[in-house]
């Protein structure tokens, strides 16, 4: 039988620090420049082991020294905010409409991320506690079947150019991180190279509008519900506001993953867990309300929040099955990337 079994306070951990209790739990902070600039395989292997150990224990790491300039990230955030400020009737013309494409604008309340795969259950959750966020989904622009949905250049000047350049930058970083994971799993450094080179990724721009705190106090309410990601890795760029929480896989309690300037939060996704036979963890996480501002004697309001999530996926036709050195008894049936991701997306949106 195949089965699926199913962070952090203000300072990150060293990769060897105990993380099994909430009092000592931290997400490892790893200087990835030591891998990128290494002059020998043994130097690379030291950083690769840190990354793989982080994914084994926590499922999440912070990467510093990743090579993406802070001014580049700042520009992407500015263009994202500019897009979300457009009138709703303009954004609605770019609406997301197909899980196979996974492109376009998603208005507040349309998505309900969850671990459930039951469409009726998700619909009930969405009606009761929809995610209080809006997103813009962007894929590879040269796809011959599925096209991105771009605003007019006059509405958001240089939006398309900025996002396509950043998409490529994130793909290149993902490729290098996958090389480090291969090394850390005792595979050839280039093992994943021809399995992730088609750029079948999804770049998600996220905007969390200000919301009255009372609306987030109901049962199951959150800015984004508890979920795991679907692909190999997620590269998450946070603003300063905070709100991301990661489940300590050892205690099952959620811990804040506080923003650290000039770092990227990187987590393993479901397909990475399946590939590694759960040697690497696909950890639950959610977005909750950060500290709120008082607006009256009886009410507070949470600040707006922005983030950018680059969901890294294997090639759509890649067969994800247990790696040869990750156990003799596979927990999962083989599946292609496209089969898995489309099935998850199809029930997540209305």
UniProtKB/TrEMBL annotation:
InterPro entries (alphabetical): DIOX_N, IPNS-like_FE2OG_OXY, IPNS-like_sf, Iron_ascorbate_oxido_reductase, Oxoglu/Fe-dep_dioxygenase_dom
Any single Pfam family the record assigns to this protein: DIOX_N
Domain of life: Eukaryota
Family: Belongs to the iron/ascorbate-dependent oxidoreductase family.
Ranges where the record places region Disordered: 1-22
Protein name: Fe2OG dioxygenase domain-containing protein
Record has Iron as a keyword: yes
Biased amino acid composition, Polar residues: 13-22
Domain Fe2OG dioxygenase: 196-314
Keyword Nucleotidyltransferase: no
An annotated Gene Ontology molecular function: oxidoreductase activity
PROSITE patterns recorded: FE2OG_OXY (PS51471)
Keywords: Iron, Metal-binding, Oxidoreductase
